[in-house]
Structure formats: structure tokens, C-alpha cells
Amino acid sequence: MFEKHKSNKPEPAKTEPRQDNFAAPSSAPVSSGRSAVIGPGIHINGDISGDENLVVEGRVDGKIKLAAHQVDIGQSGLVNADITAKVIKIAGEVRGDIKGTEKVVISQTGNVHGNIVAPRMTLEDGAIFKGSIDMDPGEAAKAKVPSPPKKTVENKAGSSAEPTKAVSGGKAKDDIKYSLNGG
Fold first, then answer.
1. CA 68 from chain center: how many Å?
2. Distance between CA 92 and CA 63 in Å, rounded?
3. How far is CA 77 from CA 36, 43, 95, 104, 154, in A?
4. Which end of the chain has fewer CB atoms < 10 Å from its terminal CB, N or C?
5. Mean per-residue pLDDT for 18-40?
6. DSSP readout, 89-152?
7. What local confidence, expressed as pLDDT, does residue 83 receive?
8. Longest CA pairwise span in the chain (Å)
9. Which pTM was predicted?
């Protein structure tokens, strides 16, 4: 009785003007905070490089090099690759060497088998790590002292000899022996 009669005519679909969100190419690193995401169903076999942050929830075999950006390995992420990035956060599994130019964080769910080079390192309680950590690679290079020049001694036969220290039981003895070169 009080019902309005509805027309069986379909209403036209409303359309909004299309807006393309393409930015002009730039040579500067992306600083908008955007991240590329490798989803849990994706497997990449190869090298990854670029100018934005990366989140890995899937699998990567190869190398990841994002020197000025952040790489996050999510809990479902599996990476068999060497990783180089400014900041590296690991909640999943990584098998490979890691170089963080700023810091590396392995969360309580993280599992890393490889060597880490970074000035700052966080290893949360519960994390699994097997490898070595170099927290100051610059100092290691400075600490290498050049070996002193070798002394050459001429013997009566006219051939030259270089002094060598005799080693006994893991300790060098004080007396010097000479080995002959040539002659």
C-alpha cells in the first residue's frame, strides 16, 4: 500500500575521474617511506637492487643490495642471500652474509646463519644466530700492522739467507736460524 514503485531500470554506474599516481623519474633515493613487498607466495631467484625499502615475506635466493635503504625480513621470510643495506631487521630466516651500514637487528623470531658486519647490532632474547659479528670493520683494517722488512744475510758460499724464528710448542724461540734461498 505505502510502497513506492521501484523502476526496474538499472542506475548508471558512478565514475570518478581517473588519477594516475606516476611520479617523474628521479635519480635521488626514494624518501617517501614506501617499501617494495615480496609477499609470502612469491619466490625470487636472482639479485635485488633498488632505491626504496624492501619487506620480504616470501623467499629470495641470490643477493639483496639496497645500500641506502632498509630491508625487513618478516616472520614468513626465507632469504638465502647476502644482504647489504643501511638497516636490516630480521624476524624470519637468513642464510648468508649481512652488511648493515647503520645497524642490524635480529628479533626474537629471527634465525641467522652467516657473518654480520655492522657498527650497531641488536640480538633479541630468543633469536638464533650462528656466525661471526664484526662491529667495527674500520678499526680492524687500522689494526693491521705491516710486517717488518726481512733481513738478508750472506753466507760464505755466496748465497743469501733470510732469518727465521724456530717455533717449539707454539712459542717462538729466541735463537734465530737461517734458511738458504737457492744454493
1. 12
2. 16
3. 14, 10, 11, 16, 65
4. N
5. 56
6. EESSEEES-EEEEEEEEE-TT-EEES-EE-SSEEE-TT-EEES-EES-HHHHHHHPPPPPPPP-
7. 98
8. 132
9. 0.59
